[in-house]
Amino acid sequence: MPAGLGALATHRLVRWGKDARSPRLGLRCSGRARPGRGERRSDVGVREAVVPFEVLWGDADPSGLIYYPSVFRYVAQAESALYRQLGYTVRAMIAEGFANPRAHVEADFRKPLWVHDTGTCRVWVGRVGNSSVRLDFALTKNGDDEPAVTGHLVMVFVDPEAIRPIPVPEVLRRAFGADEGTGDDRFMPGSP
């Protein structure tokens, strides 16, 4: 099975719960049990997700260093895990009348990641605005204290038919803890 498909298949095997881990991938999610089919989570602040990564041969440039677009694939996997904790898939979002395209993506490469390096990609809610959400991320190699790659992405919530900005859906505002204030250091890499 191709690596990408195996990762997707494994994510379905995760027993969701507080700091639950997949036996094969070690996917960790903060929050409580995964919602049932058709349910949405808004009763608990779900503000981060952590997924493992391995720099495979196809993820690297000819020198063996990670090829920069691979970072964004790992970030997308962690972002997907974050939304799945809330019971959302892309189809579910569109069915409920919203989509969240990227308006800005930024990354700082602080340390090299080589072929066969493994680690974790952590994504957390950095800020919730009126119609946008900023997700911060960090990729940390196993055994390192400091992240190899840090960055953020800003998504704007839109009506999927008109492609016009709309307010962040209330269920997501509550789940992301918008009323508690976001953007604080509690969710920075290395914080408890």
What letter string, H or E per element, gives the SSE order?
HEEEHHEEEEH
> Under CATH, the topology is which?
Thiol Ester Dehydrase, Chain A
CATH class: Alpha Beta
Radius of gyration: 16 Å
**N/C terminus separation:** 36 Å
**How many structurally independent domains?**
1
Could you list the spans in which at least 5 consecutive residues all have pLDDT below 50?
A: 1-44, 181-192
Strand-residue proportion:
25-35%
The rough form would be described as elongated
Helix/sheet category: alpha+beta
What does this structure look like?
By secondary structure, the chain is α+β, with helices and mostly antiparallel strands. It starts with a helix and ends in a 17-residue tail after the last helix. The chain has four helices and seven strands; from the N terminus they run H-E-E-E-H-H-E-E-E-E-H. Helix content is 20%, strand content 25%. A seven-stranded antiparallel sheet has the order 1-2-3-5-6-7-4, with helices on one face. It is elongated, with a radius of gyration of 16 Å. Strand 5 (118-128) and strand 6 (132-141) form a beta hairpin. It has one domain (3-32, 46-184): Hotdog Thioesterase (Thiol Ester Dehydrase, Chain A, Roll), CATH 3.10.129. It comes from Thermorudis peleae. Keywords: Hydrolase. It holds the Pfam family 4HBT_2. GO terms for molecular function: fatty acyl-CoA hydrolase activity. This is Acyl-CoA thioesterase.
